């Protein structure tokens, strides 16, 4: 790509946009205000955005809207690129010593809930998209600012897939913060080429009630759930040459009461991160084997967290380092940052799993770094927000032609 074809991202506008995004509270399930802001920002720049409705009436009773905009290319046979970022944050943390939505800038850091995860990435992808409007493109670029990534089910990107928005895309970039959540130590510019998947065991343990003064006459479901949690914590998990090892983490045991009774019921929630090659049925079989080896007196039912639909699963994925999107991003990183990018893999899960696994799109995570994500004192490095915007815009031109 020649310098004449390079899109121009305005650094000051990018950080001003980021500050406005951070100053707009948007905990998951409460994104209406920020979605309106994103829509209006795109509309004011002539990008004809659309609201894409997201509804989940059965479990969460959620109603919301993604914001979608498209830059149409000149060649229907050219590759098209999806740019994805979520607008929501975790619930506002109480331990902040300042306004959690201040957007304060100091020492090259911008502070606020969601500044790094992922309003920095959202600002970068929005200004990159805006800059691309001034460059001739052969393939389409689709921008999706989505709701509910931080919530339990990733309903925004799930609905994009269900409604066919990803069908005509050839690859995806997700601007989540990369280095801070990578499996290994990497520094920006960094390209994360895959992620582990995740299942959440929801296990019911059914014992036998008895008077609490005579526990030997009952079967204590809480005790046996604890034994099961400890045993699951120690199971062997899969390994992958790029994604590393899987992991298991017991999260919660519920059961019993304050009455003088041996608990007859307990519920155990266990996180299971998996690598490519490990399926839900593999995870179920592992848990069933542990139960059999323990020879518990309780009846145990192995299940998984209830979901609005059975295919709402965070599957693991890996994108080939030689894929044209990866080479486009690597070349863009060299052009923008004058250095080769680091390569890595994400340690947890997010919308990129839906895109990389369920939608079967080669998906790369490239985003600005920071600290304290999901916690008080969260910040993002402002120079990296601008750098990511430049890299994404440059790479989009290289990839889409």
Automatic annotation (TrEMBL):
Name this protein carries in UniProt: Succinyl-diaminopimelate desuccinylase
PANTHER family assigned to the protein according to its UniProt record, in alphabetical order: ACETYLORNITHINE DEACETYLASE, PEPTIDASE M20 DIMERISATION DOMAIN-CONTAINING PROTEIN
Gene3D superfamilies per the UniProt record, alphabetical: 3.30.70.360, Zn peptidases
UniProt key word Metal-binding: yes
Keywords: Hydrolase, Metal-binding, Zinc
All residue ranges annotated as the Peptidase M20 dimerisation domain in the record: 194-295
Pfam family for this entry, one: M20_dimer
Protein's organism: Halogeometricum rufum
Span of the signal peptide: none
Alphabetized InterPro entries for the sequence: ArgE/DapE_CS, Bact_exopeptidase_dim_dom, Peptidase_M20, Peptidase_M20_dimer, Peptidase_M20A
Origin superkingdom: Archaea
Bilayer-crossing regions: none
Cofactor: Zn(2+)
Similarity annotation: Belongs to the peptidase M20A family.
GO molecular function: hydrolase activity; metal ion binding
